[in-house]
């Protein structure tokens, strides 16, 4: 009986210690979630700068309709998402792109610098984006410095480039609009400017380092 009682006491003590450890870990996770900032779209250092006026570029989409991207003649801003039929991340972002364009009242355009128009038509129909303009243009990709996919470009109704960058997640995509509304070029710029000189902040440095890694790759 004494041995069984001792074992029970030890087990309860062990359960108590584990409970305390779990609570401590949960607290640390909460602290980290507040301190680590979200990473925005990764903006390449080459190519046009946010805030510059874009030139209008006319082209035909896959349906044969003439569309214009950039310039000052549009009544609405435009969200251009560069995708590829072989890019699973691109396909996963399509619902987010449609939702964001609808909420922000933006013209949504899908683009690619690839070939084989028939393959892109099949991709657009299968992905449920056949009703949106879809253009194949190497010139468009070169103009906005597209190097990897999925890549998004945000242009205001005034023709000014409001944001661009590699967007691997819905948060990356939404950060372009958030930066536009905040009046900054990118979320990374906002976090850098918000950090006092000489002060270390894990959130700011995490976003900054992610951008550096992207540029290096």
Please describe what this structure looks like:
With 217 residues, this protein is an alpha/beta fold. Helix content is 47%, strand content 15%. The protein contains seven helices and seven strands, in the order αβββαβαβαββααα. A five-stranded mixed β-sheet has the order 5-4-3-6-7. It has a two-stranded antiparallel sheet with strand order 1-2. Helix 2 links the parallel strand 3 and strand 4 (107-112). The longest helix is centred in the first third of the chain and has 34 residues, at 2-35. The radius of gyration is 24 Å and the shape is elongated. 31% of the residues are buried. Residues 33-37 and 197-217 have low confidence and may be disordered.
Number of helices: 7
Count of strand segments: 7
The unreliable regions are 33-37, 197-217
What's the helix-strand series? Answer: HEEEHEHEHEEHHH
State the helical fraction. 40-55%
Largest sheet: 5 strands, mixed
N-to-C span: 66 Å
Rg from C-alpha positions?
24 Å
The average pLDDT value, as a whole number, equals 84
Task: Briefly characterize the structure.
With 217 residues, the chain is an alpha/beta fold.
Q: What is this structure's SSE topology?
A:
Blueprint: H1 2-35, E1 57-60, E2 66-69, E3 78-82, H2 88-104, E4 107-112, H3 117-126, E5 134-136, H4 138-143, E6 151-155, E7 161-166, H5 170-182, H6 187-194, H7 202-216
Parallel strand pairs: 3-4, 4-5
Antiparallel strand pairs: 1-2, 3-6, 6-7
Helix pairs in contact: 2-5, 6-7
């Amino acid at each position: 009986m004494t041995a069984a009682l001792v074992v029970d006491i030890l087990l309860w003590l062990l359960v108590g210690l584990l409970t305390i450890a779990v609570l401590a870990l949960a607290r640390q996770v909460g602290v980290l979630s507040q301190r680590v900032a979200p990473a925005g779209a990764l903006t390449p250092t080459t190519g046009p700068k946010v805030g510059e006026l874009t030139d209008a570029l006319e082209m035909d989409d896959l349906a044969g309709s003439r569309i214009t991207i950039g310039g000052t003649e549009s009544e609405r801003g435009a969200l251009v998402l560069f995708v590829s039929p072989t890019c699973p991340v691109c396909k996963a972002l399509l619902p987010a792109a449609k939702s964001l364009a609808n909420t922000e009242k933006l013209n949504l355009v899908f683009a690619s610098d690839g070939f084989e128009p028939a393959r892109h038509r099949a991709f657009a129909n299968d992905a449920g984006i056949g009703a949106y303009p879809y253009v194949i243009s190497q010139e468009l990709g070169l103009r906005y410095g597209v190097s990897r996919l999925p890549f998004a470009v945000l242009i205001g109704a005034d023709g000014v480039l409001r944001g661009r960058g590699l967007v691997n997640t819905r948060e990356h995509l939404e950060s372009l609009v958030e930066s536009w509304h905040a009046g900054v070029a990118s979320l990374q710029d906002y976090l850098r400017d918000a950090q006092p000189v000489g002060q270390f902040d894990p959130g700011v440095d995490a976003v900054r380092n992610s951008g550096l890694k992207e540029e290096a790759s």
